[in-house]
Write a structure and sequence with these properties.
Helix content: 40-55%
Number of domains: 2
Order of helices and strands: HHEEHEEHEHEEHHEHEEHEEHHHEEH
CATH class of the largest domain: Alpha Beta
Strand content: 15-25%
CATH superfamily of the largest domain: Histidine kinase-like ATPase, C-terminal domain
Oligomer: single chain
Radius of gyration: 30 Å
Number of strands: 14
Strand order of the largest sheet: 2-1-7-6-5
Largest sheet: 5 strands, antiparallel
CATH architecture of the largest domain: 2-Layer Sandwich
C-alpha cells in the first residue's frame, strides 16, 4: 500500500562512482592537511628545542632527538631554512624529492616562496618539480610555507600531490567530454520530436523522423551504458572474482555478439588457430573487451572484407589479435586512439554510432587484468589490435590437457 511518501531513487552507478571519487579525494585532502599541520607543529617544536639546547647546554637533549626522529619519519617533506636560506633541517622525504642539496634549496621557486613568507607569514601553493631534478618523471608538490619566528626562519612542508592533481584533471576533462557528447543525441531527439509534431499529417515524414529518433535513442543508450562501464573500471571498484577462462570461449562469445553487425555489412568473421590458452580473469569483462575490438574492426572495414581473430601464447601472456582489412590508422593517431572520446574520423564515427569510448574500455579492462592492448596499423593495409592477458598460473593448458591431467 502506498503511504504517500515518495520512493527514494537509487543513484545510478555513474553517479555513485563519481561521488565516491570526489569523497575519496576529499578524504585524501583532509589527511594531507592533517599531516601538514602536524609537520609544521613538529618543525616549530624542533627549532625551539634546538635553540633552547644551544642556550642551555646543561639541559637534556632527549626531546630534541625524539622530535627530530619523528620529523625524519614524516611522509610530508619537511625543510627549515634560516634567514640566509641555509637549510638547518631537512628530512628524508624532502631529500627524496630532490629539493635539498647539501645545505641549499635546489628549487628557485621554493627560495622565492620562503622570501614571500618572511613578509606575509604563511602561504600555500603547488610547485612543479622537473624530471631533471628528480631523476624520474616530473612531480607536483603541494607546499605549505610558514614563518616560524622574527629571525627569518621558515618551515616548508611538501606533499606529493601529483596523483590527486591528475585525478582532478581527469575528472574535469571527463565531465567536459560527457557534457559535450550528450548534447548531440539529446539535441537531435528534441529536434526530431518537434519535427514529428509539425508533420503529424504526413505519415511518410513521421516514419522517417521516428526511424531517426530510434537511431539517436540507441546511440544515447549506448553512450550512457559505456560511460557507466568506464566509470566502474576507472572508479577503483574491485575486479569481479577471477576464474580460469578459456580464450576459445571468450572468442566464440565475442564473435557471436558481433556477427549480426558483420553480416549486415557483408563482412566475414574468421578464427585462426586453436585458441587453447587459459587465462585467469573475469570472463564478462574479457568478452566485452574483445567484442569492442571486433565491433570497431567491423565498423571501419569495407564491405566484403574479412576480420580475423587469432590467439597465441607469448612470454606468459595470452595474445588475442583482431586483424582487419580496413583503411588503417594514420601514424599520428595511433598513440591517442585509446583515449576517451578520441576518434580518428569524427564524421564517420557519428555515422557508425561510435562515441570514442570502446577502445578506452578495452584499455582499462586489459590494465585491470595486468595486461595491455596495442595497435599496429598501416594506411591502406588494415589494422591489428592485440589484447594481452596473463596466462592462468598452472592452468595454461588446453582444456583437453587439463582433462587428461586429472584423469
Amino acid at each position: 500500500m502506498n503511504s504517500g511518501r515518495p520512493t527514494p531513487r537509487r543513484p545510478s552507478p555513474l553517479v555513485n562512482s563519481v561521488g565516491r571519487q570526489i569523497y575519496d579525494h576529499r578524504v585524501e585532502a583532509l589527511i594531507a592537511l592533517a599531516g601538514l599541520v602536524a609537520g609544521i607543529s613538529l618543525a616549530l617544536a624542533l627549532v625551539a628545542m634546538r635553540r633552547r639546547s644551544a642556550t642551555e647546554p646543561t639541559q637534556p637533549t632527549v626531546g630534541f632527538d625524539v622530535a627530530r626522529r619523528v620529523v625524519e619519519l614524516m611522509e610530508p617533506g619537511a625543510v627549515v631554512v634560516d634567514a640566509d636560506d641555509s637549510v638547518i633541517l631537512a628530512n628524508a622525504a624532502a631529500r627524496g624529492l630532490g629539493v635539498v642539496r647539501g645545505r641549499e634549496l635546489a628549487v628557485p621557486h621554493l627560495l622565492r616562496l620562503a622570501a614571500t613568507v618572511r613578509r606575509t607569514g604563511q602561504r600555500q601553493e603547488d610547485v612543479r618539480l622537473t624530471a631533471e631534478l628528480l631523476g624520474a618523471g616530473p612531480r607536483t608538490v603541494g607546499v605549505q610555507a610558514m614563518r616560524l619566528d622574527n629571525r627569518g626562519t621558515v618551515a616548508l612542508l611538501l606533499l606529493d600531490v601529483t596523483e590527486s592533481r591528475r585525478i582532478e584533471d581527469v575528472r574535469r576533462d571527463f565531465m567536459a567530454n560527457v557534457s559535450h557528447e550528450l548534447k548531440t543525441p539529446v539535441g537531435a531527439l528534441s529536434l526530431l520530436a518537434e519535427a514529428m509534431q509539425d508533420a503529424s499529417n504526413d505519415p511518410e515524414a513521421i516514419r522517417r523522423f521516428s526511424a531517426r529518433a530510434v537511431h539517436e535513442a540507441q546511440r544515447l543508450n549506448r553512450l550512457v551504458r559505456e560511460l557507466i562501464d568506464l566509470s566502474r573500471l576507472q572508479g577503483g571498484e574491485p575486479l569481479p572474482e577471477r576464474n580460469p577462462v578459456s580464450v576459445r570461449v571468450v572468442i566464440a562469445e565475442a564473435m557471436d555478439r558481433t556477427r549480426l553487425a558483420a553480416d549486415a555489412r557483408a563482412i566475414r568473421l574468421s578464427v585462426s588457430g586453436a585458441a587453447e590458452e587459459v587465462v585467469l580473469g573475469a570472463e564478462g569483462q574479457l568478452v566485452t573487451a574483445l567484442t569492442n575490438l571486433l565491433a570497431n574492426a567491423v565498423a571501419y572495414s569495407s564491405p566484403g572484407t574479412t576480420v580475423t581473430v587469432a590467439a597465441r601464447s607469448q612470454s606468459g601472456f595470452a595474445e588475442i589479435a583482431v586483424i582487419d582489412q580496413g583503411e588503417g590508422i594514420p601514424p599520428g593517431d595511433q598513440a591517442r586512439i585509446f583515449e576517451r572520446f578520441y576518434r580518428v574520423d569524427p564524421a564517420r564515427a557519428t555515422a557508425t554510432g561510435g562515441n570514442g569510448l570502446g577502445l578506452a574500455i578495452v584499455k582499462h579492462i586489459a590494465t585491470n587484468h595486468g595486461g595491455g592492448v596495442r595497435v599496429s596499423s598501416q594506411l591502406g593495409a588494415g589494422s591489428t589490435f592485440t589484447l594481452r592477458v596473463p596466462l592462468a598460473p598452472d592452468l595454461a593448458l588446453s582444456p583437453r590437457q587439463t582433462q587428461e591431467a586429472h584423469s
